[in-house]
Amino acid sequence: MAKAKELFKEFKIQSVSEFFRRNAAMLGYTGKIRSLTTVVHEAVTNSLDACEEAGILPYVRVEIEELGKEHYKIIVEDNGPGIPEKFITHVFGKMLAGTKAHRNIQSRGQQGIGISGAVMFAQITSGKATRVITSTGGDEIIEAWVKIDVEKNEGKIVKKIKHPNPTGWRGTRIELEVKNVKYVRSKQGVFWYLKLTAIANPHAHIELIEPDGKLIVFPRSSEEVPKPPVEMKPHPRGVMTDDVYRMAKRTRKNTVKRFLISEFSRISDRKIDELIKYIAAIRLINREEDKRIKDELFERLAKGEVDLILRSYGRRAKKVIREVQKLMDKPPEKLTWHEAEEIVEAFKYIKFLAPPTHGLRPIGEENIVKGLTGILKPEFVTAVTRPPKVYRGGIPFQVEIGLAYGGELESSFNLLRYANRVPLLFDAGACVTTTAARSIDWKRYKVEDLDRAPLTLLINVISVHVPYTSTGKQSIANEDEIYEEIRLAIMEAARRLQTYLSGKHRKLYQVKRKKTLQKYVPEIARALSILTGEPEEKVKEYFISLIERKFETVEEALEQPAEVEADAEA
Amino acid sequence: MLKREMPKERFAYDPQKVLRKLEELGKEILEEVRQGKNPYLDIPTRGLNNVYFDEVKRVIRMGNKLSRRYFLNVAHARKFMQTLLIAAYVKRLVSEGKHASLREAYYANKHTIPGTKENTFEDQSESDPVIEDLERMLGVLREEMHLTADRRGYVYGDITIRDGEDEFNTSKLGMGGWAVPGTVEHIQFVDINVDYALVVETAAMADRLIEEKFPKKERALIIATQGQASRGVRRLIHRLHYEEGLPIIVFTDGDPYGWYIYSTIKQGSINLAYLSEKLATPEAKFVGMTMDDIKKYGLENVTEKLKGIPPNKKGGPTGDYKRIIEEMNYPWFQTKEWQRQLKLALQWGVRIEQQALANKSLEFVAKKYLPEKIANEELLP
Q: What are phi and psi of A344, to 5 degrees?
C-alpha cells in the first residue's frame, strides 16, 4: 500500500486550464504565425457573434503593435453590445463555460474555449493580464485586467477601474500581450485571415493596423445583419451512444419515450412504436448463435421486414416487446449505457424524415457576391448556395461557393476555405474543399490552366457539426456527401463562368478593359512629358489612339467568330 | 603592415547620368507608342532564382531573367503607370538636387486618378517595389536617384569629409563620431589620414575602441555597423575601398549572425544582388572573432552555447546550427580557413561575442588583440 501512496503523492487532478496549458496546440496555438492569427480569430469571432446576436452592424478594429522581438500587443475593439460587469470573468476566464458548447447549434467558435484560450495564451507567454474595456452603453465604462487562475479554472480580475461614460459608448475593447508570435503578411497571417473574414461577412466593417502603422480597411458592402443561428434538436441518425446516454442524464422528461420525442427531431409517438419493434428484433437476432442466420436476419431488418421477423419468433417476440416497452417507460436517468447503445443501433435501421435545416445560416448568394466584389474587385462573380443535405445519415450540412474571375485578381488560382463562415488557413492539402475543387475538369469550362487563371473560389461548408480532420479544425474531412455537394456547386458556378467567357459578356469585358487602360492615360502622359519634354497633350493622343486601335481589332474579331476560335487555338 | 593602396574607382557620382537614363527610358516608350506598338518595361526578375555567385568578381549578382510589363495588358497597366510616375518624380528630385525618403516619395505621388475612385498608390507597399524595379531597370542606386535609405551606423577616425556645404573631420565630432546618412553618394573624401578601415559589428565595441584611442594609435577608421550593415554603410565601405584604396577589415561576433554580416559586406546579399557591384567589397578581410581565438586567448569560460539542435541530434539541425551549415555551403566560404572555423563552431557548439574579450581586461581588445592580429595579418579571407 505504501507504494501506491507514494505513487499517488505526485498525482494531481488536472484542471481544464492546466490541460489547455499543456495542449495549446489542439486549439490552434502552434507556430508563431498561427498563434497570433488564432488570438485575433478568437477575439474577432466573439465580436462578430455578439454583434449578430444583438442585431448590430459590426465595426471591428484590430491593431497589432510590435513591442519587441516576437512580442506583440493585440488590440481588438468592436461596437458590440458590451459585457455586463459580472460576466467579464465568465467570458474571459473560464474554459468550457461557453453557452454553445452543449447546444446543437451552428457556431463560429471552438468548443467554448475561444477567447479564454487567448487570454490563457497571453498569460502563459507574456505573463500579462488581458485588459478589457467594455460598456453596455450605460453610465459607466469598466476597465478590467483579467487573469485565469489555472488551478481553479476561474477568471479573476486583478485590477478594475470604473470610468464615466458621458458619450454613451458601447462596445468591447480587449488588449492582449503575447510573446513567441510573429506578424507576417503571409497566407497564414492576420492580414489574410481578416481579408477572408471580411469577404464572408460583408455586413462587417473590419480594420487592421499593422505593426508598421499601416491602416488597412475592409469596408462594409452589405447593410443587412445576418440572423443568429438557432438551436436544432439532433437528428436520430446523427447521434452516438454517448450523446444519447448523456442527454438522458440531463433531461427533465420523466420517461425515456418522452425524452426521445421531445429532445430529438423527427421522432413521434409512431416512431417510438417502430423503435420498440426494432429494438426487440435486434435483441432477438442477437440471441441467434449461428452467424450466418444472424447476418441474414440483419440484412432483412435493413430492408424493413421487422414485422415478418418478429412474427417468426411468435410468443418470444411478444415477451421481448413488452420488455422494451417497459424500457421506454422508465425514467431516462436510469437508462443504461447498453440500452442507449441499442437505441442508437435501432435508429440506424429506421427511416426518418431528413433533419430540419432551419438552424443553418448560409452567407447567401447575394452576400457572397457582395463580399467578393467589394474586397477583390473581380470582373466576373457568381455564387451558388446549395439546398441543405445530410451526411452520415443524419447530420445536416450545406455548401455554398462563390467564384470570382478576372478584374483585379492576380493570375493564379486562390481557394478561400470556410467552415461556418470561419476562414480556414492551414492544412489546405488535406481538406475536402481542395480535393473537390481540384477534381473539376476546368478545361471543360474554358479555364485552360487553373493555376494561372485569375480565379478565386470561395467554399463555405455549413453544419452544426463540421467533420474536421483533426483537433486543429483547419481542414474538413472527406465525407462523400460533402465532396459531391461541393463538386456540384462548383460545376454550376463554372458553367456560368463558361457562358461569360465564351463571348456573351466578352464585349462588355472589352469595354471595361478599355476603360481601365484609358484611366491611366492622363497619369502616364504627365509622367512621360516630364521625362521627355514632349507636350502632355501629344503624349495623351498617342496613347489614346493606341488603345482605340487595339480594341478596334478585337471588336472586328468578335464579329467574325471563326477568327476568335483560331486565336484561342493559337 | 596594412597600408592604403592605389584607388581602383573614381568618385563617380554624376546626377547627369541618372537624368540621361531616365530620359532614355521615357524616349524609348514614347517612340514605341508613336509607332503604334504596345510599349513595355523590361524589369529584371527578383528572387533567388535570378541570382548567382560570380566566381570572377566574387560577388552575388543578378541573372538576366526579365519580366516584361506591357501597357496594353490590364494586369500590368497599373504598375506601368506607377513606374513612370516614380521615374518622373526622380527626375524632378535629381534635377532640383533634393532628397526624399521612401515614405515621402509615396505620399508625393499618391493621389486619386481623376474621374475614378482609384489612387495612384494605395499604400507604401506599392511604391517601394516600384522604386526597386527602377533601380534594377536602370542599374542606378536608389541613393543616386535621391531616394534615401535607412540611416544606421557611424564612423570615427582621422578622415575629412565634405557633405554639401559642410566639411569636417570625423575624429573631431565627439566620441559619437559621424552618423552615416541614408545617402553617401554625394559625400566627398577631402583628406584621409588612416591606413585601413575597421568595420565593427556592435556599437558597444566601437565605443570601446574609440575610448581606448585605438583609431589614433593604430591609424584606423572605425565604422560601426550596428548589426547588419545598412545600405549607406555598405556603400560607404565600398567607396572607401575602391575610391580611396583603404583596406577593409571586419570585426564581428564569432557567431553565424556575425559571419553573415561579414558575408553581406563582402559578397552582397540576395535581396540586393543587382547592387552588388556598388555595395559589395569582395577584398574585405575578417579579423575575428574566430574559433581559434578561443584557444589562443584562453576564452573558454566566456563562450556561449549555440542555439538550436545540433545536426547529429534528432530534429536537428535547427537555429544557429542550421545557419552555420548553410554558411558552410556558401561558395565564398569554400576556403580551408573558413571551413575549419565553421566546423570548429559546430564541433564545440559554441559562439563567442566581441565583448567577451573584456574578460581579459577592458583595454585588451584595443591594446593587444586587434593590433597583434592586424600587424601579423592573421586575417581570414
A: -65, -40
CA nearest A30: which of A472, A418, A473?
A472
- Residue A110 pLDDT class (50, 70, 90 cuts): very low
Q: Which residues pair with A160 in a beta bridge?
A: A144
Name the grid cell of B3: 597600408
Among B103, B115, B105, CA closest to B83: B105
User: Residue B75: left (phi > 0), alpha (psi -120 to 50), or beta?
Assistant: alpha
Please give the residue that has the higher pLDDT: either A558 or A148.
A148
**Bridge partners, A400 (sequence order):** A385, A460
Catalytically annotated residue among B89, B107, B242, B297:
B107
Per residue in A507-539, pLDDT (tens digit) is 767 787 888 889 999 999 999 999 999 999 999
Extract the C-alpha cell encoding A180.
513567441
What are the C-alpha distances in Å from B108 to residues A310, B79, B93, B118, B130? 88, 17, 11, 16, 14
The pLDDT assigned to B84 comes to 95
Identify which has the larger pLDDT, A18 or B40. B40
Closest Cα to residue A463, out of A513, A391, A410, A414? A391
Q: Flag whether residue B33 sits within 8 Å of chain A, measured between CB atoms.
A: yes
B85 neighbourhood in chain A, CB within 8 Å:
523, 527
Helices (H), A144-189: none
Please tell me the pTM assigned to this model. Answer: 0.52
The Cα B246–Cα B4 span in angstroms is 5
Q: Which among A515, A546, A554 is the top mutation candidate for probing chain B, defined by the most B β-carbons within 10 Å of its own β-carbon?
A: A546
C-alpha grid cell for residue A523? Answer: 497619369
Phi/psi at A49 (nearest 5 deg)? -60, -45
Please name the residue that has the C-alpha cell 493596423.
A209
Whether B72 and A526 lie within 8 Å, measured CB to CB: no
Question: Which H or E element spans position A520?
Answer: helix A506-532
First to last CA, chain B: 17
The three-point CA angle B42-B47-B48 to 5° equals 130
d(CA A44, CA A250): 33
Confidence at residue A256, expressed as pLDDT on a 0 to 100 scale:
93
What is the pLDDT, as a whole number, of residue B371? 94
pLDDT at A453 over 50: yes
Which of B38, B88, B116 lies nearest to residue A531, judging by beta carbons? B88
For the stretch B116-139, what's the b/e string if a residue is b when 16 or more beta carbons lie within 10 angstroms of its beta carbon?
Answer: eeeebbeebebbbebbbbbbbbbe
pLDDT band at A108 (very low <50, low <70, confident <90, very high): low
A498-A500-A506-A512 Cα dihedral, nearest 10 degrees: -130
For cell 475612385, the residue is B117
Inform me whether the pLDDT recorded for A188 exceeds 50: yes
Shortest Cα–Cα distance, A382 to chain B (Å) = 21
Looking at residue B258, its amino acid is G
Nearest C-alpha of chain A: how many angstroms from B254? 22
Active-site residue, B321 included = no
Decide: B246 and B194 in contact? Cβ < 8 Å. yes
Closest CA to B366 of B376, B380, B354: B354
Local structure of B117: helix, strand or coil: coil
Q: Among B22, B30, B150, which would you mutate to test the A interface (most chain A Cβ atoms within 10 Å of its Cβ)? A: B30
Cα dist. A133→A53, A83, B378 in Å?
20, 9, 62
Low-confidence residues of chain B: pLDDT under 70: 1, 150
Task: Say whether B30 and A519 touch across the interface (CB within 8 A).
Answer: no
Phi, psi dihedrals of residue A564, rounded to the nearest 5°: -60, -45
Q: How many helices and strands (H and E) does chain A possess?
A: 19, 14
Which CA distances in Å does B7 have to B153, B207, B241, B243, B324? 24, 29, 8, 5, 35
Task: With beta carbons less than 8 A apart as the criterion, state whether A474 and A424 touch.
Answer: yes
- Name the grid cell of B9: 574607382
